[in-house]
Queue: 4 jobs
Job 1
Amino acid sequence: MPYPKYPLTGILAAIALLASSLAAAVPAIQNWRAGNGVPVYFIPARELPMVDAQILFNAGSIRDGEQAGLAKLTSALLEEGAGDWSADAIADRLDRVGARLSFSSRRDSASVALRVLVDPRYLQPAVETVARLLKEPSFAPDAVDRVRQQILTALRERAQSPGAIAQDAFYKALYGNHPYGSPPEGTPASLNAIDRAAIEAFHRRYYTAANAVVAIVGDLDRPAAERLAENLVGGLAKGEAAPPPPAPPAPPGQTLRIAHPSSQSHILIGQLGVKRADPDYYALFLGNHVLGGNGLVSQLSQEIREKRGLAYGAYSAFSPMQQAGPFLMNLQTRNDQVETALQVAQTTLRTFTDQGPDAKALEEARQNITGGFALDLAGNGKLAGALGSIAFYGLPLDYLQNYIGTMNGITLDAVKAAWQRRVQPDQLITVIVGGAPAAPASPDPAKPPAGS
């Protein structure tokens, strides 16, 4: 039996209607401060007897200073011991109540994420554990050495990855000596130079109430959420707020070629983008969905993959941070196709910046973004992640409710104007890693030379 066919416009309209109704159903964000001043953001979600909480600290790698990798090492050590608890004791405490706890460190922030049942038998021990990890991590010397070696091992693997090499080189070329240019994982030399005193000092400076925000989503009422926040972060020292990172200067365009024995070359092309609070971000994000943010149907993928078969895929993205994050195009191609792929990518970007997307493509992108909005928030974990970003970057409390309306209000002219203001196709930083043949195998001493 053949499937019925529906016009695309009808499908898009149905998606838009569904997205609008789901967006309207997003509960309002409640906001207050804990007793020690930590901002708390809360959305009640009564569907499941669970709670997701995120604590974000202004303690990312931009705070490393001259000790690259310090923020990541500190974050990774938080679950390795607290007070008289060992790492095994901490893991056992969490396992007994079925709690999930994770730590992460990025350029802007370090975060702690907890998921646990709201029943006090499970919630209270889990929260007590997190609070102690944040307040009094032990940073035992053996744990410091063990975690340092784990990161050094990851760095050795990273040094063999052409994609990672390209990313590191791009960030260094884009940001230079700005804190965003420092590798979050550090370097072997910088990691080996970090001692326990430096880790303790970093924790004391940045893991404080003045540098924290809390996001909570779960089956709680307001009083219970207030108690949860107090129990999580109420014991943090007040501390002093870290200053915002400086605005990075726009670097000149350049092309870096790094030889690597890989069959394909990794190509990154980009420039400075915008910070998360920039009003142009929405128009740039919408336009980028047409250029390279919508998988195989985006213009970059069509030009590079579908029409010419130069790569399996190509994409682009804005990655805003507290200050201007990168705008980046990314693709991989055979070594003998690098110049052609570069030319196509650069021409596609220049044409898009000069002319903008056509009205039909922009409308389809808008419907795709707004239609996927509900899926982006599906589940308490995703909603808590979005709430954490709102909290950390100081976005409006009505951000979620207004998101679809904001996207629907962006005109074609606004997209064109934002791209022409923010994107300079003649000032791109290009990094190409690849193009070198693999080193010949060493001769086997057990075999005689050929022809002997």
Job 2
Amino acid sequence: MSSQAKFWMESRLGRFVNTFEENAIAVTLGLMTALTFVNVIMRYAFNATIIWGLEVVLMLFAWLVLLGLSYGVKTTMHLGVDAVTNVLPKGPRRMAAILSALICIFYAMLLMKGAWDYWAPFAGLDVTSGRWFPTGFVPTRTRAFMETDQVPMPFFLNFLSDLINDGDAYGKLPDVVPYTMLPVGMALLLFRFVQAGIRIVTGHSDTLIASHEAEEALDELNAKSQGN
């Protein structure tokens, strides 16, 4: 394995991303399950409810989707069609995989820019200039004062008032908190596509996905014919 591939796949950075991704998914899914369970018990047993529970579950579900995007790239679980590339010789198949990786990296970079530009005003920051790639920053009206509808403000996040809201205390959880997963999720997605591209270039993989729909279709057809 080349030193560059080893850096992305086995370095401290790679291990940190793996650990963060897996733990974040596990914690998010656990919190969603626990909060929903508690709300159901309270509703049917005590005729009460956690009024902010649904809003938090919706936020966590969005976080889970964004985290799942990059995790799916890591585990090659995204859907894909390989019926055409499988019939290509080894060289052209590898070139097609590299082209696919470059397109995915370009797309992830666009998503990263869009995610930053959407999130930045909620953090009191400026959006980027440039149509396709960031070429600088544009003075932007802040949205740091905007809050969620019902989620109470956790005491350990009170520092955000001084950090991004000119010292004005938040009554509810600021929108910047749930929206932070946008740039984080897109950064993870970009990292995973770069990582997958390096695997292909260095010869440790020949595809971005693990789809084998052609073989699966044949296996299914054979199984049905044997059953008949």
Job 3
Amino acid sequence: MKVVRTRRGARLIQGGAVLSEILARPGPTHSLFDLLAALIERLAPGPRVALLGFAGGGLIAPLRALGHTGPIHAVDLDHQALSLFWEFSADWAGEVEIDESDAAAWLCDQEPYDLILEDLSVEGEEGETKPELSWRALPDILAAKLRPGGVAVTNLLPVPGVSWNSLQAELSAPFGEARLLELTEYENRVLVCGESLPEARSLTRDLRQRMEQLGSKQARLFRTRRLST
């Protein structure tokens, strides 16, 4: 992983792709992380939020800029990214607790959360992809580790040999409802799962409102649709 320092903080780059934008103060990243932050701020029904895969804390700056002040519990194995996050964000990040551990084992040991964001990735032969764990074993663990009314958010990437439809079906199977967010400028998709979710049009409106408040250039560059589960 390559670190490129910028006037706003630092970027983590792997295989030519920007994995994370770590900012020196709260504000928009103008990337996928703004959408993820808006989802947390809109959908978490309570204060307990977990991040599986911290990615250098790229969403903490937009999340705090949106006014979310609650504690964040995270797990990651990347020492370099964690060091950069604390270097740039320690003074304003608020209560952020990061454990260096395997994500599935860590989550199994935790009390249930109101919202869990799964942002795990690995470098594959064709670029960044999802580890098999995230779409085989984790969906059932996520469902079991949510409080009543809780929400699971997954940052999806292409998986060689697995269609988008199959991947989305595997991840949403343990849940009553699912919404899929597709971004204009990213191959990533974002899957939102729970037992009761806002309708796609309402969710799009609420997220755009928050991202425009944030000043994010991604505010109009996504769409939401309902998935069958």
Job 4
Amino acid sequence: MSGRLVPLGGSEPWAGGLVSARSTCVLAPNASAMTLDGTNTWILREPGSFECIVVDPGPHDLGHFDAIQRAVDDARVAQILLTHGHDDHSEGARGLADVVGAPVSALDPQFAYGSQGLHDGDVVEAGGLDVHIVSTPGHTSDSLSFHVPADGALLTGDTVLGRGSTMVAYPDGDLGQYLRSLDVLESLARSTDALLLLPGHGQALPNPADVIAGYRTHRHQRLDQVRAALGAGATTAPEVVELVYADVPRELWPAAAVSVQAQLAYLADRDE
């Protein structure tokens, strides 16, 4: 894991690379409107250690497995961790596990492999590096974030992205839980003076607490827009999308409709 540090939050297309002394991103070859530049596979390693942790192996792609192994270099993969079970993060987990001989740990037992799983408050250690597990449901019910105190880093999966906003994957995802998870992450970022936000898609960012606060503000603005759309006569998620997400490319409207369903459910619960 040697090389030139990539700039944080720059305008150049994101290609991954060495982000800090302990974190390297290997970008998966699955770029799309939904996955941005591709899934960020994060390799976490204490400098000088011969063990590392791989987070979110991405798709089952042998070329990507090779790229991960090149980035790992002479280290042994001690653990594979999943932020959540969506295919673009988890599909390659078992395949990579078989290649490198490491267990897969996740909150949802169906994605664990050779491991008892992960829970809020757990600490995963490899080669002197501690990774703290933080439950952050909302995008999905099984979403986790990872705090690496030694690097001042928060790995947020799809809860907070490197650009744009994330989908609340209703009905498994829940907007109320999502907003509470943003509160948890911002509080953690501020109390620990976190320096880096390492997302599941998009570029690594500085100032995690401010990024997360911005996400919360955006969500509440969208909720106000949804209320206004309902007041203007919209009755279905697609009708709301046409009014509220007119500035979003149409290829993203199906995903927006899923988030709108989560927003409608959230508002309905508060109107009861």
